[in-house]
Amino acid sequence: MPLSVWRKLGLPDLIPTQMTMELANRAICTPDGIARDVFVPVGKFTFLADFVVVDYESDPRVPLILGRPFLRTARALIDVHGEEMILRDGDEKLTLNMKHDTTSYSNHPYRESVNLINI
């Protein structure tokens, strides 16, 4: 989470951390802290999530990045071919149409965002 978003939301004090992060562009940064148990509303659901707070300029179209831990919490099912994601809470579910949600993004990723895995 960008530090500016954390300030704007008026969340409780950050938990200090010794963590260092390597970003997609290979830059190394030290987070300002961790925000624990933040309520994240998604449609009709509200989930708890933890965020690493970093002082960086965010894309206004994507103020927060919800990663794999959040997807696990939301019991997400991702249908890549059908271009939809289903979030579940108990017996209820919410279907997000990814076709509509991602049309504003470029299909040409930046070269520095590609990660290689050597096996």
From TrEMBL:
Keywords: Nucleotidyltransferase, RNA-directed DNA polymerase, Transferase
GO molecular function: RNA-directed DNA polymerase activity
InterPro entries found in the cross-reference section: Peptidase_aspartic_dom_sf
Gene3D superfamilies: Acid Proteases (2.40.70.10)
Protein's recorded name: Reverse transcriptase domain-containing protein
Source taxonomy: Eukaryota, Viridiplantae, Streptophyta, Embryophyta, Tracheophyta
